[in-house]
Design a protein that fits this description.
single chain; about 425 residues; alpha+beta; Sulfite Oxidase, Chain A, domain 2; 2 domains; five-stranded mixed beta sheet; four-stranded antiparallel beta sheet; 11 helices; 11 strands; about 10% strand; elongated; binds ligand MTE; binds molybdenum atom
């Protein structure tokens, strides 16, 4: 067994599989993970704030930016994580497989880290294609919990590997040598004692099969030029990252929309030339939203007022340019028109510090009821929108009225409003 592991490990040696590569790719991956973690926490808490939390309402594209970064960095993790696994793959066949208790913990934390990361980016990617509606588990809670498993095991991994990380962090000037790089700038392999396994006698089951397998593994061809193949390796990673990012980032970054061929949403496609997340028919609001008896009920304490759409139009109307920035990564700018939320709340003498709860005509959906803190509810850009881009709101975009507020995730821009209340 030891002999097999050793042979496999030797056969898998390649110039790009060295500690320096592992450190360089590891740095990029760690940066991408930290961007995802930070922006993910922001997205989580803006949707589920802890008591007393407040959020920035400017710049209006703040959430568009953080969530765009989240999805883009997450997508970049795919090629990076495979590159990293490729670079350290021979380590899987370490001899002996477990060198002691600490080594066992280390390997277990890496196994956990790899499994959790692959799961995390996979369900995240599926989510950008709206697959979460089919998940058998709650996407957001799972994605959130896994992120702590990842960051925790990553911290352990970095702590354990710190000596290697610092050793291979930077190259000495060309022509100089240190204990990690030779004068050519070639990383030296980690100095491990020659495994005893190499001296193990070849096991055999009697008919020469195993020794033939070993001979075959041991003869694996060795690449010629370390420089070229390492350059090729990094070029491949670079092209792969640029491709997956370049072909999707247009979903959150409008100027690159032309190159967005992989991401699910296109700018300008849909009713009112805006993508739709959930249609009126999927939300089963076709009748209630078109009802001539529709009113928006505004409540504070025991004071209640009902506004018809015509009455909402007689209030001072404002036009604001705000993006819809979906948690799934796509976003699109539009010009919204309608009364300010704060004017409506003032009409029932709501406390300016109150949280506002918005209820949709839609029933039985987690998107049907949302809450916003006073910083958003009192903001002059927060509207109960009746029009978009100069036209009556399409029913798929929330007719008769929808919420639109700056720097908020799309999921909180409640469509088909029926009630808003100070709580
Ligand atoms: N009532 C209700 N409002 C909703 C949703 C929903 O499913 N139901 N989806 C939200 C999500 S996830 C997004 S991204 C935006 C999308 O707005 P749009 O469909 O007008 O583009 O609406 C939000 N408002
Ligand atoms: Mo969304």
């Amino acid at each position: 067994m030891q002999r097999l592991l050793y042979s496999l490990r030797m056969a898998l040696q390649a110039p790009s599989r060295n500690p320096r590569t592992a450190v360089v790719v590891g740095r990029l991956l760690a940066a991408a993970f930290l961007v995802c973690f930070g922006t993910g926490l922001y997205s989580h808490f803006i949707q589920d704030p802890l008591p007393g939390m407040q959020f920035l309402t400017r710049p209006v594209w703040l959430y568009q930016l953080t969530q765009g970064l989240h999805i883009t960095a997450g997508i970049a993790c795919f090629p990076l994580i495979f590159a990293k696994l490729y670079a350290v793959f021979p380590e899987l066949f370490q001899t002996p497989p477990i060198k002691g208790f600490v080594n066992l913990l280390e390997r277990a934390s890496i196994a956990l880290f790899v499994a959790a990361s692959l799961m995390e980016i996979t369900i995240g990617l599926l989510n950008t294609f709206q697959a979460y509606r089919f998940f058998a588990f709650p996407f957001r809670q799972t994605h959130f919990s896994l992120s702590f498993v990842i960051i925790g095991s990553l911290a352990i991994h970095i702590a354990v590997k710190l000596p290697i990380i610092t050793r291979y962090w930077s190259k000495p000037p060309l022509g100089q040598e240190n204990d990690a790089f030779d004068a050519d700038g070639q990383p030296k392999p980690l100095d491990e004692p020659t495994p005893d396994a190499a001296r193990f006698p070849l096991p055999d089951i009697g008919i020469g099969v195993t020794s033939r397998v070993f001979a075959w593994i041991d003869r694996a061809p060795q690449p010629k030029s370390p420089h070229t193949s390492r350059r090729g390796f990094f070029a491949t990673i670079g092209v792969a990252v640029a491709a997956v990012v370049g072909l999707t980032v247009g979903q959150s970054f409008r100027p690159l929309d032309f190159a967005n061929v992989l991401a699910p949403r296109k700018a300008g496609v849909g009713p009112n030339a805006l993508p739709v997340n959930r249609t009126a028919s999927a939300a089963k609001v076709l009748d209630s939203a078109m009802s001539p008896n529709w009113t928006l009920t505004v409540v504070s304490g025991n004071k209640t007022r009902d506004f018809s759409r015509a009455q909402l139009k007689t209030m001072p109307q404002y036009t604001v340019d705000l993006p819809i920035a979906c948690v799934e990564g796509w976003s699109q700018q539009a010009s919204w028109k309608g009364p300010r939320l704060r004017d409506l709340m003032d009409s029932v003498n709501a406390d300016p510090g109150a949280t506002v709860r918005a209820t949709s005509l839609e029933e039985g959906s987690i998107y049907a009821v949302t809450e916003m803190g006073a910083e958003f509810a009192r903001d002059e850009l927060t509207l109960v929108a009746l029009e978009v881009d100069g036209k009556t709101l399409d029913i798929d975009h929330g007719y008769p009225a929808r919420m639109i507020a700056p720097a908020r995730p799309g999921v909180l821009q409640t469509k088909w409003l029926t009630k808003i209340e100070a709580i």
